[in-house]
Amino acid sequence: MNQRLFFSLIAASLVLAAFAHYFTDHAIFQFVTAALAVVVLAAWLGKSTESVAHYAGDRIGGFLNATFGNAAELIISFFLVRDGLFEMVKASITGAIIGNMLLVLGLSVLLGGLKYKEQKFNAKLAGHNASLMILAIAALFIPAVFLRELPVVKIESLSIVIAILLIIAYVLWLIFSMVTHSDFLSDIDPQESEPLWSKGISILMLALSTLFVAIVSEWLVHGVEYISHTFGWSDLFVGAFVIAIIGNAAEHSAAVLLAVKGRIGGAVEIAIGSSLQIALFVAPTLVLVSLLIGKPMDFVFTPFELAAIAASILITISITRDGATNWFEGVLLLTVYIILGTAFFFV
Amino acid sequence: MNQRLFFSLIAASLVLAAFAHYFTDHAIFQFVTAALAVVVLAAWLGKSTESVAHYAGDRIGGFLNATFGNAAELIISFFLVRDGLFEMVKASITGAIIGNMLLVLGLSVLLGGLKYKEQKFNAKLAGHNASLMILAIAALFIPAVFLRELPVVKIESLSIVIAILLIIAYVLWLIFSMVTHSDFLSDIDPQESEPLWSKGISILMLALSTLFVAIVSEWLVHGVEYISHTFGWSDLFVGAFVIAIIGNAAEHSAAVLLAVKGRIGGAVEIAIGSSLQIALFVAPTLVLVSLLIGKPMDFVFTPFELAAIAASILITISITRDGATNWFEGVLLLTVYIILGTAFFFV
Amino acid sequence: MNQRLFFSLIAASLVLAAFAHYFTDHAIFQFVTAALAVVVLAAWLGKSTESVAHYAGDRIGGFLNATFGNAAELIISFFLVRDGLFEMVKASITGAIIGNMLLVLGLSVLLGGLKYKEQKFNAKLAGHNASLMILAIAALFIPAVFLRELPVVKIESLSIVIAILLIIAYVLWLIFSMVTHSDFLSDIDPQESEPLWSKGISILMLALSTLFVAIVSEWLVHGVEYISHTFGWSDLFVGAFVIAIIGNAAEHSAAVLLAVKGRIGGAVEIAIGSSLQIALFVAPTLVLVSLLIGKPMDFVFTPFELAAIAASILITISITRDGATNWFEGVLLLTVYIILGTAFFFV
């Protein structure tokens, strides 16, 4: 996209959201403008991260991309944790995982599949992703199974241990996929494109975009609380389907675009990589951060969320296992997504 | 089989069942004769469907076969729904799914495996079946997890949404496997055999056999209610192991015969295809039909049924994944079937 | 290892354990010495079994190895059953399964992977193991799901049926893997080594080592009861993590050694084979034996144990499916093991 147009869009959406927040009382208007601004700003944050990563070199850049790829999601969740909206945080983690695996991957596979009869990608990568996803399932189910009957203090201790183990596993995964076994996993071609900005500007951009995402995220969280009361939507539905979609919109469109261009491997890597990052990095980080700010959040998800995550992971593993996709597999993913969305809506 | 013999058998079993129903009071005799007649008539219905499908051309014929392949099961279940025997309907759906996956596939793989050291089939087909099976698991588990605590009206709404989504997914699956990707999935050789009857006779046969299956199914349902009271068998056991076996006997023998002839691919396609048809087409159709006749049945299965279906699907996926079978895999399938049968019997 | 050193070690550990048991009152000292003696004696029992198996010929030897491979575990569990410590027995079965799949396989894969970039093994074997593991999951979950609400007498009956079915399946598996399909499954090179002892001595060794394992196991069980009270550890934790590790230490080190020597196939076969043997042979045998000695134990595991076993099996299947391993897969297995250990500790 044209740079001038891009920055005009950023400025316009920021001004609109600020106007709505400071000068009007119309909650739905405030929510919609904040949501739009977050989507645009998250795209900006993504581009800035990529640009800084470019100058940081392959390895550190890869780490940066992998760690800040879900920065917007992380920032929004931080404000939810601060406000004690733990149910909504966990729902938005759930929603981000299933949204990436079912909605984004489903749309990518379906739209790509309508154009190409069969799209192939690196099956070895798919195998590793499957193992990581099962670690994620285990890490989320075990506390839920074990901790229902435990006193609060034990739930907290176990939550912390699991959070630390997951972050270690995630860091080792980055080392594995970028250092020791980088040669036989990646499927995205090395980025041939020149970065948009100079090194100094890139860092400034990253700082600015993060700041603005943080500011507007706070507005969004206020709006969300109001919206869920007004429409009578449950925290579960709002977190899993409204916040998760807003926080991940930028990445979602990137994955779908790659699939339509015939690069399904890249789309799979973004969709599943982002899910894993949420489960193995964002979620445990939030648990640890919640302790630091004195609002301890545990790692115990509801049976609804666990069922949704397990269903998503199982069907995603089944579909990506063979390293080939077709349109009907997209239909399957989207069907499960719509079933889950309906179920969350009714709860 | 000789046609004359076949029709003599149909006539004899019909007359016997009618005699038992109208002129005797012996419930067990009525039940046994009705069961026998249903088995024979279901075979006739199957042959008539195939014959009509032959004249309808490849595609529409394929749809016909796929849609009416479980017509007998559907008709019997309809009468159970009409009588409000929802527990037995769901149990018979469960029984048909696990019976196809464990009993039929198990016998086919075991008997085929005693003759051939290893039998191979199209692994791509197995992969697609696995994904559809996981959709089936998700569709059956999600309402059970979410709906236990919901008011009845929400359970009904969600049941309808899921039923419609599953039927759409099933229709798209037929389009996928018969239209857009027919070339790389099928494993059954094109049927070289001539149809038994002319076009007009075939349609008449289909109408007649459907009518007789309907009549005798109603007798059978009456008998079943009596039998389960007399022997103290639970609805769960009767539905899952008595009705399911009677309703699917014709197909079952067809699959086993193919396996013994070395065509394990055909046996797998019948056994798993039939399971999927029950889960993704028969079950949701019954939910929608139950609404139309004013006896709304929901989509919530018991934990027993869900555990049985999940166990069957997991072991079937594991065994068919590699596109090769041997006798021991048949033993595994049958062992799980016997364990489940014993468990259902004791409940 | 040098034979003289080996027997000195056996003698020393036996004398020490006997001294602690008969002449001191210090429970922790008694427990530690008994534990050490069991580890050493189990290694002796293992070597004796191998040696007898050598003289018995390939097939019967294979059966012997497969059946008495977990003799130490079986003997310890027998004493636990006799003392009515059913919770601890089931926990130790759970611990042996997850210890083999996660700790042993994890260490083998990690240490092997630090030396070799990728280690390959027979993927066909992995596929068969996966199917057997799913049978094990089904066999352990089905009673738990079905039996919670049943009267005790039905739980016992179903437990017996399942135990017998599993033993039959296990025997058929041995026939399959050693008789009918021995050619395309095994991954361990035929043992080229000469046996250590003559035929007569080997049998004597087997008898003696079994006797001593039995004697010291009883001391160990006494110590364990005391230890768990003193430290306030739950039966679950002691069974699953203390007893399971002591009872399987000898095998564990054998598997890890093979992996480091580059023979990951052998390590996988030991680790997974041992798990399957526990689930499909040791556990059902204990159920049947418990009846014979008038202390009937059922087959109903706790949700914690089932969750732990399911998590272990799923991640093991995912990692071994492709017939290749690397260091990060070891990290994944060990991470799940540590998470489970922490969770069991807190319960």
TrEMBL record, chains A, B, C:
<dbReference type="InterPro" id="IPR004713">
    <property type="entry name" value="CaH_exchang"/>
</dbReference>
<keyword id="KW-0050">Antiport</keyword>
<feature type="transmembrane region" description="Helical">
    <location>
        <begin position="299"/>
        <end position="320"/>
    </location>
</feature>
<feature type="transmembrane region" description="Helical">
    <location>
        <begin position="270"/>
        <end position="293"/>
    </location>
</feature>
<keyword id="KW-0813">Transport</keyword>
<feature type="transmembrane region" description="Helical">
    <location>
        <begin position="62"/>
        <end position="81"/>
    </location>
</feature>
<comment type="similarity">
    <text>Belongs to the Ca(2+):cation antiporter (CaCA) (TC 2.A.19) family.</text>
</comment>
<keyword id="KW-0106">Calcium</keyword>
<dbReference type="InterPro" id="IPR044880">
    <property type="entry name" value="NCX_ion-bd_dom_sf"/>
</dbReference>
<feature type="transmembrane region" description="Helical">
    <location>
        <begin position="93"/>
        <end position="114"/>
    </location>
</feature>
<feature type="transmembrane region" description="Helical">
    <location>
        <begin position="196"/>
        <end position="216"/>
    </location>
</feature>
<feature type="transmembrane region" description="Helical">
    <location>
        <begin position="126"/>
        <end position="146"/>
    </location>
</feature>
<dbReference type="GO" id="GO:0012505">
    <property type="term" value="C:endomembrane system"/>
</dbReference>
<keyword id="KW-0732">Signal</keyword>
<keyword id="KW-0109">Calcium transport</keyword>
<comment type="function">
    <text>Ca(+)/H(+) antiporter that extrudes calcium in exchange for external protons.</text>
</comment>
<dbReference type="GO" id="GO:0016020">
    <property type="term" value="C:membrane"/>
</dbReference>
<feature type="domain" description="Sodium/calcium exchanger membrane region">
    <location>
        <begin position="27"/>
        <end position="178"/>
    </location>
</feature>
<dbReference type="GO" id="GO:0006874">
    <property type="term" value="P:intracellular calcium ion homeostasis"/>
</dbReference>
<feature type="transmembrane region" description="Helical">
    <location>
        <begin position="158"/>
        <end position="176"/>
    </location>
</feature>
<keyword id="KW-0472">Membrane</keyword>
<dbReference type="Pfam" id="PF01699">
    <property type="entry name" value="Na_Ca_ex"/>
</dbReference>
<feature type="transmembrane region" description="Helical">
    <location>
        <begin position="27"/>
        <end position="46"/>
    </location>
</feature>
<keyword id="KW-0812">Transmembrane</keyword>
<feature type="signal peptide">
    <location>
        <begin position="1"/>
        <end position="20"/>
    </location>
</feature>
<feature type="transmembrane region" description="Helical">
    <location>
        <begin position="236"/>
        <end position="258"/>
    </location>
</feature>
<feature type="domain" description="Sodium/calcium exchanger membrane region">
    <location>
        <begin position="202"/>
        <end position="341"/>
    </location>
</feature>
<protein>
    <recommendedName>
        <fullName>Ca(2+)/H(+) antiporter</fullName>
    </recommendedName>
</protein>
<dbReference type="InterPro" id="IPR004798">
    <property type="entry name" value="CAX-like"/>
</dbReference>
<dbReference type="InterPro" id="IPR004837">
    <property type="entry name" value="NaCa_Exmemb"/>
</dbReference>
<feature type="transmembrane region" description="Helical">
    <location>
        <begin position="327"/>
        <end position="346"/>
    </location>
</feature>
<dbReference type="GO" id="GO:0015369">
    <property type="term" value="F:calcium:proton antiporter activity"/>
</dbReference>
<keyword id="KW-0406">Ion transport</keyword>
<keyword id="KW-1133">Transmembrane helix</keyword>
